[in-house]
Amino acid sequence: MKFSILLKCAAGLTLLAATPALAAPNDGDARMAAAERLLTARKYDSQIDRTIDAIVAEVERTIDVELNKKLPEPLPPEVLAKIKALTDAHMRQTFADHRLEVRRGTALIYARHFTVAELDHMAALQSDPVMVKMQAEIPQIMAETMALSQAMIAGGQEQLQADVRAVVEDYLSNKGKSPSS
Residue 181 and residue 178: Cα distance in Å, rounded? Predict the structure, then answer.
């Protein structure tokens, strides 16, 4: 479960720029320039690298447990090592292939939500020591938050699956019959 959610998060980041709702606002050129200044001030590229490292580390930490849960017998360590290496390489390559789109998509999101003045103000705030610390910590915080969210979702997963199975079984057993009143 955690592995698939992390992969979906990673895939979602790569599709960010292709989302039609990410059109620039009316004063788009000025806002995009301001958003780019903010990303530069935030050291966005470095932050993305650290975020990717945190996501890959979380996947590597949990992938063997998640894979082995679904198998009749545990995979041998050498097979798990190959899978981890493949996953690591694939995720890093996917991020590398879509790095510019993700940055542009992120800039579009900021440009849609903030004015030029607000973006420039946020860029100026990035030199504050507390903001510098937050930017350094945010990749790890995001990875931990994802793990927390995944644990919460996983807790109700079995009940959801049982409820869905009951609805499907009820439908299949009553297919073609009139609804009872």
Answer: 9
Amino acid at 95: F
- pTM score of the predicted model: 0.60
Q: Is 75 left (phi over 0), alpha (psi -120 to 50) or beta?
A: beta
- DSSP character at residue 26: T
Gap between the Cα atoms of 172 and 27, Å rounded: 55
Condensed to tens digits (0 to 9), the pLDDT of residues 19-47 reads 444 455 567 799 999 999 999 999 999 88
Is residue 141 a part of any domain in this protein?
A: yes
Residue, of 29 and 61, whose pLDDT is higher:
29
If we measure between CA atoms, which residue out of 1, 161, 8, 148 comes closest to residue 67? 1
Q: d(Cα 49, Cα 91) in Å, to the nearest integer?
A: 12
Q: Tell whether 8 is covered by a domain.
A: yes
- Tokens 């995009």 sit on residue: 32
CA 103, 108, 113, 115 torsion-angle sign: positive
Q: How far apart are alpha carbons 26 and 139 in whole angstroms?
A: 32
Question: Would 179 be classed as within a structural domain?
Answer: no
Task: List the domain range (segments joined by +) for residue 47.
Answer: 2-174
Number of H helices, E strands in the chain: 7, 0
The beta-strand segments (E) located in 39-142 are none
